[in-house]
Amino acid sequence: MSFMSLRDLFPDHWRLLALELPGRGAASAAPVAATMAEAVSSLLPAVTGHLTGPYALFGHSMGGLVAYELTRELARLGLPPVLLGVSASPAPHMRQVRDRYRDLRTEEQLAGFLHDLGGTPPEVFDEPDLLEYLTRILRADLSLLQNYTADPSGVLDVPLAVYYGESDPMAGRDLVSPWADYSSAGTGFRSWPGGHFYLFDRPEDFAGRWERDVRAAAERAARHRPTLQGAPWA
């Protein structure tokens, strides 16, 4: 649902697949993922069941880290994307959740964090049931991140596109720049004015940039078609 505002900004011939972790949205009745491995395992069938050609993966905030780990697993299966996009997401080894957010335990503290981060409509804070739902998800996400450990061997042979808001307190330039060490195929960076949810403040600009980056990555992959033809989905 978060990305609905972007849906109509991409080319008509693109096939879009919105991935949703268990415990939220349409899958709200399912148990939340306690570890990154559980999160990836829950998403993997949804991705592999739709691969009929070259594709790109994109994740925002914690979704960027999930998309990175999902890409690692897809690469192990011989199904790598032509591009991985991560947005407002610190490099894996730059996660500081243990120190900065370990005291966010009560609903009031979690609600305050959501308020300060921005991106949550003000009326949500006046709806107890909805606020409880959001803070429950946030608590689970923070727990997952606290249990996450970066793998120093996790360098991808997949191009990376890294996006961030210039005034994002969660993922500024110093925290996202080390993503360059996670790809042997090249990493590009693009920043915009704004905070953690910069892309929803300027959806047309962001969608246009993502489209151009995906097209360029697909063209690069096409120039190496003999390699791609060896993959099951080519």
Write structural notes for this entry.
The structure is a single chain. The chain is α/β, with parallel strands linked by helices. It has 2 domains: about 5-95 and about 150-220, 3-Layer(aba) Sandwich (Rossmann fold); about 100-145, no CATH class. About 40% of the residues lie in helices and about 10% in strands. It has 9 helices and 4 strands; from the N terminus they run αβαβαααβαβααα. It has helices at about 35-50, 60-75, 95-100, 105-115, 130-145, 175, 200, 205-220, 225-230; strands at about 55-60, 85, 160-165, 185-190. A 4-stranded parallel beta sheet has the order 1-2-3-4, with helices on both faces. Helix 2 (about 60-75) links the parallel strand 1 and strand 2. Helix 1 crosses helix 2 and helix 4 (about 105-115) crosses helix 5 (about 130-145). The longest helix has 20 residues, at about 205-220.
CATH topology of the largest domain: Rossmann fold
Mean pLDDT: 86
Q: What is the approximate shape?
A: globular
What percent of residues adopt helix (DSSP H or I)? 40-55%
CATH first level of the largest domain: which class?
A: Alpha Beta
**What are the segments in which pLDDT stays under 50 over at least 5 consecutive residues?**
226-234
Instruction: Write out the CATH superfamily name of the largest domain.
Output: Alpha/Beta hydrolase fold, catalytic domain
* Domains, number: 2
Radius of gyration (CA) equals 18 Å
Q: Which sequence of strands runs across the widest sheet?
A: 1-2-3-4
CATH architecture of the largest domain: 3-Layer(aba) Sandwich
Query: What is the terminal separation in angstroms?
Result: 30 Å
Please give the number of β-strands.
4
Order of helices and strands: HEHEHHHEHEHHH
DSSP summary: helix tally = 9
| Class computed from helices, strands and strand pairing | alpha/beta
The percentage of residues in β strands lies in 5-15%
Major sheet description: 4 strands, parallel
Pfam family, one: Thioesterase
Family: Belongs to the thioesterase family.
Organism: Streptomyces cyanogenus
EC number: 1.1.-.-
